[in-house]
Amino acid sequence: MAQLVKLLDYVSRYENDLSRYPTQYIRLKKYQWERMKTQWENGATLTEWEQKNNETVEEAEEGKWFSSLFKRFGQRKTVIIDEEVLETSDDQGNQEEDQFGFSPNIIYNPTSLEQLRRLYLDQLFHFQIKWASSTLMDKSRVDPRYMRDTLLRSFAQGLPDNYLLFYYPVLKLKQAPVELDIIIVTPVECMCITVIEAEDVSAFVGSSHRFWVKKSGENETKVLNPLIALNRMEKIVSGIFNGQEIDFPIKKYLISRNGYVDYPGAPFDITMIDRRSYEKWFSALQKLPVPLKSTQFKAAQAILDIGQTTSMSRLFADDEEQLEEDN
């Protein structure tokens, strides 16, 4: 699963230490999947899992969430990324680990390993949203529609762990907030993605003009040229990298999962993906056998550094949520 580093202007745990959380996420994800699979293969019943879940909740109330897991990894870790050695301390941020423990539950009895895997990934996706909207001290109010966002879920669940995902991030440029589209920082490139989707099998007729034509059945309407936003995003990201002297490729992608894009004279530096080529393109992204890179971290960190964050203290946020539940 790709790592959701930034979602809109929500506060993100990755803002605290981008060099630490990606490797921690990979360890946690692998450990919990093996644990869940082993329990299922050994015939753990739904009742047993519910009982364990209740015990976990009781421990959480005592402030002991998940600390035992991270003690397994020792007091100090050495992680090699792109021939660079990064050291992390388990003592640093133990309180935060307690707040962000991920312990999946079997909420129904899967009949196959694939069903179990789907159950696991769905629960992990919800925790990704949590990690991308809260820290130990702060919390952002998440729009519920992102829990149902099929594109976000597809990217988060379908792409490899070494992809760092920025989903419509809000950046602060010259004291003004600017919302971009989708940015995926892979080990080999920074992907700037603009998505155009409407009714199924709609066709978008492209041109160099300010407006394109969208055809849906017998209907034709004008839509704003999506390349305007895409080129603007690439220019902003390129400026960020140049300002930090980061030499990292940037590529532009226009995507329509359910429609067609017809633009014979399209600019050579833009890759256009529509329903005819989307599955093949997405499948190729899933097969990138490259580990996390130091330049990848630098590129992602440069974007994070100017990200706008809107949040409130967890103390007040939790009190508000409790009041809403009581009412």
Quote the average pLDDT: 81
Beta-strand fraction estimate: 15-25%
> Main sheet?
6 strands, mixed
Quantity of strands, as a count: 16
Order of strands, main sheet, comes to 1-5-8-9-13-15
Order of SSEs, N→C?
A: EHHHEEHHEHEEEEEEEEHEEEHHEH
The gyration radius over C-alpha positions equals 21 Å
Structural class: alpha/beta
Q: What gross morphology would you assign?
A: globular
The parts where pLDDT drops under 50 for at least 5 residues are 46-100
The percent range for helix content is: 25-40%
**End-to-end C-alpha gap:** 37 Å
Number of helices: 10
Describe the structure.
- The radius of gyration is 21 Å and the shape is globular.
- Helix 1 (21-41) runs antiparallel to helix 5 (113-131).
- The protein contains ten helices and 16 strands.
- It is of the alpha/beta class and 327 residues long.
- The chain has a six-stranded mixed beta sheet with strand order 1-5-8-9-13-15, with helices on both faces.
- The longest helix has 21 residues, at 21-41.
- A hairpin with a 2-residue loop joins strand 11 and strand 12.
